[in-house]
Specification:
Elements: H1 8-18, H2 22-31, H3 36-47, H4 49-56, E1 61-68, E2 74-82, H5 85-88, H6 91-105, H7 120-134, H8 139-157, H9 174-185, E3 190-198
Antiparallel strand pairs: 1-2, 2-3
Helix pairs in contact: 1-2, 1-3, 1-9, 2-3, 3-4, 6-9, 7-8
Amino acid sequence: MSTTEISAKEVKALRERTGAGMMDCKRALTEARGDMEKAIEILRVQQGKKIQDLGERTATEGTVQAYIHPGAKVGVLVEVDCNTDFVANNDEFVGFARAVAMQIAATPSVRYVSRDDVPADARDAEARIHEQDAETKPENVRERIVAGKLDAWYQMVVLLEQEMHNPKFEGKTVQQLRDQLTATTGENVVIRRFARFAVGH
């Protein structure tokens, strides 16, 4: 992939994930031929601790936000953490936590913050269903079919993989918004936990 094929969107996405400078991100993406994970690796080698800091600093400050849906039948509590009380009180940070609470309220299927939180037995049970469905397909494509179906399931049950319902976020996922906030604040933004309450459930 040549330099001209590295889009501004890709550079921006890498910057949001790492907090590195625009030119550094562009260089790393060019060197990695557009491979995002490889580009992150390159930046880590070049800039070391600076890149890892965003993900490794302990998030001990934060905010708990609540959202009650009109009609008072659905309510959500969410805890979002960061590194300093300065950011915890920042309007953009609090706004992100509120937007996430609204997203959870609007999505009854969401049960986990990240893929890492999904219990192995729940994942395996889901995979078994799709393995049975894929039995009639040619053997060489079965694994891909199951992986694709699992990805679609993760997008339903994992909060970070949800596309935001609110049109103002232009179809970004919760993860993309979190990465963006991490880049703009320079702090480790972590959605720690959430609880969704629905009358009768």
